[in-house]
Structures are given as C-alpha cells and as structure tokens.
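Hi Y.,

Following your request, here is the sequence exactly as I used it, all 441 residues.
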Amino acid sequence: MDAVITTYEDGLRDYHLLSSRACGVTVVVLVLLGILLDYVVYPMEQSRFVWARIITSSLIAVALIALYTETGRRHVEAVTFAWLMLPQIMIAWMIFVTQGEASLFYAGIILSIFAVGTLFPVGHFHTLAFGLLTLFSYYLACTLRKDGIQDTSQFLFHATIILFATSGSAVFTYFNERIRRQLFQLKEEISRKNSELAETNANLVQIKGHMLQQEKMAAIGTLAAGLLHEVNNPVNYCLMAINVAQESSVAKVDATLDECLADAKQGMQRIQNIVSDLKTFAYRSREPSHYGNDFPLEGAISSALRLVGHEIKGISVTRDMPEDTLVHGDEAAIIGVLVNLLSNAALAMRAANCTEPAIRLSAMCDGDRLRISVQDNGPGIPPENLARVFEPFFTTREIGQGLGLGLSISYSVIERHGGTLVAESEVGEWTKMIFDLPRAM
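Below is the corresponding structure, written out as tokens. Let me know if you'd prefer a different format.
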C-alpha cells in the first residue's frame, strides 16, 4: 500500500505541476482582461488598477517560471498556493481603495474561491487555508480604511458568504481528491491484474512447451531403448575382439597398434554411451548424479582430441589447465561432451572458412567445482540462436547433417553431474562453451 501511495503522490505532483502552469497562464490573462472591468466600474481608479494588475501578472509569471526549476517542481503545491493568493491580495487592495464592504470587487473574491475549489490544482486543506486567508484579507481591506466598516451587516453578510464558499469548495475538493485516488488505485489494480494475466499466459505457454517436450522425449526414449538392444550386441562383439587383440603379444610390443586398439575401444564405448545418454536424456532428472569415478580431466581431453583428430586437422588447439584436474563423474560421458563441443567448433570454423582456426581449452578451480571452457575463433552464434542452442532438435545444419541433439545431450550430461553448460558468443569473433564438474574429494 505504501508503494502505491508513493506512486500516487508522484503522479499527483506531476498533475499539479501541469495544471498549475496551465491555470497560471489563464489567471494572468484574466487579470489583465480585468482592465476593461475597471474601466466600467471604477474609471477614476483605472490608472492605479492597471499598474496593480500588471504587477500581479508579473509576479504570477515569475512563479510560473519557478515551476520549471527543480526546487519549483519539488514544491509545486506551495508555489501554486502562493501565486493563487496574489490575485486575492490585489482584489483586497482594490476593495480597500474603493468602497470597502460595499465594493463591487467583492464578487471577484467569491469567484476566486469557487474557481480554486473546482478548477485549480490544490488539495482540500489548501482550499480551506486559501478561503480563510481570503476572508482575513477582506477583513483587513474593510477595517483598515480611514472610516473603517460603515455597514456592519453588509460586512458580516459578505464574510458569511466567503465562509460558505470556502466550506463548499473544501468539501468539493476533498471528494475530488478521493475520486482521483480511487481512480488511480483502480488503474493500479487493473495494471496488476494485467501483469498477472500475462504471467499466467506465459506459464501456460511454458507448460504447453514442456508437454510437447515430454512427448518428444518419450519418443526418443522408445527409440533409444530399441537402439540400445540392437546396437549393444555388435558393439560387445567388437569390444571382446579388441580386448583379445590387446592381450596379444603383437599389440604388447607395438605401441602404435596398442594405442589404435585403445582408441577403437574408446570409440565402441562411446557408441554405447551415446545410446545410453539418449535414453537418459529422454527421462532426465535435474537432481545431481553421484555415480562415476575420479579421473583426470586432462586425460579425458586427450582422449576426446584423439577421437576428433580427423575433424580438427589443421586447427590450432591449445590448453590452459591447472596442475590438479582430477574430477568425479562418468569419464566416458564427459569425453562425449568434449567430442561434441570440439566437433561443433571445428565444423563452424570450417563452414566460415576461418583463415587461422583455433580452439582453446582452459580450466580453473572454483571452490569444489572445476570450471572448463572450450572457445573457438569461429563466426559466433547469432543472438536469436544463442538462447536455443540447447533446445532438442534445434540445428542450423542442413537436412541430414544433424538431428540437433548433441548439445541437448551434452547439457543433460553436465546437469547430471550437478553443473550447467552455458554458451557465450560474439558474432564474427568467437564462441565459448562453459561447463563445470565436481572436483574429486
């Protein structure tokens, strides 16, 4: 409620400022037009009255100029009240120099009070104060004359009418303020309801998206389950053959052959993990996973670089790693993430025909996490695509060159390790993929 009232007071101050400026100009015009009235009613005093009206109009103009300053805007009500009293003081002086309580300018006082209560930008307390000060000015104008008050009954009648006009104007102003506040609160309530409605609509759209996503993931899960069954058997045969080959005497004496067999074994294991990750991704949970073993990230990076050796040929690859890169998790899954990130970087740079393609892998310790980044100097990712790179089935490649699942699966793998995978990019300059893993305890 306090915030609403503060906002209302700020809005009311702006309204008073605008109204005060407009009404001030109107009053200046009316005061000067009163010269014609002086000529009709008191022609013998016209010379003095002209100067009085010019001086009053000039002072009001000064007050209006003050409203354009910071101090004037901050104290708009006080400045407005001050310039509103200037015509009353002028009229009181005219009553004083003419006929006192019998002066025809008495009508101008009454009209001013009603005008302030209905048109001018002041509150009900200001209206009440304005009326009482007007009554006091009228009293002085009548009593300070040389002969004083000549007709007491007429004076009392006029004073009573001034009080009636003041009371009526104050009451009218009070209810006018009340209505204005209620309208403002209604406007605030409508604005709040609209915001809530917009938020509800956004939530509904998000829920609909989640439902569609779940349908897609269910389809992926069914597909992955079939692939896992069909692919595991031939992969297991290959792994058995590789294990037998690694135990042979030829592999033990030929380092190159042994390394090739190790890479082939890792490739077969990666096929198993890809299918498994598809199934896990389809039914992924946001709860961090605690499975896996301790392994050096440096070794996982070396394995990933070997697996994508044919893709990154001709690309400069640099590493910036701390001494301790021991992390906890599923090494094969992390190798899969690194392979995906490296392959994407190499493909983007080749597609953009980069003259000096380069990939930089770096890591730094951040508490109990190791933060890793893979940065390339490729064409970057447009802003409209940056927010969608981890979205399943989103791809900018041509049909048949990718399903748009690589980064989604990688995101899921890092999420299972209790971390996040984030994309940063500068179009035409670079792209950086950042993720974090739990450090070994």
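The CA atoms of residues 392 and 405 lie 5 Å apart.

Thanks again,
Q.
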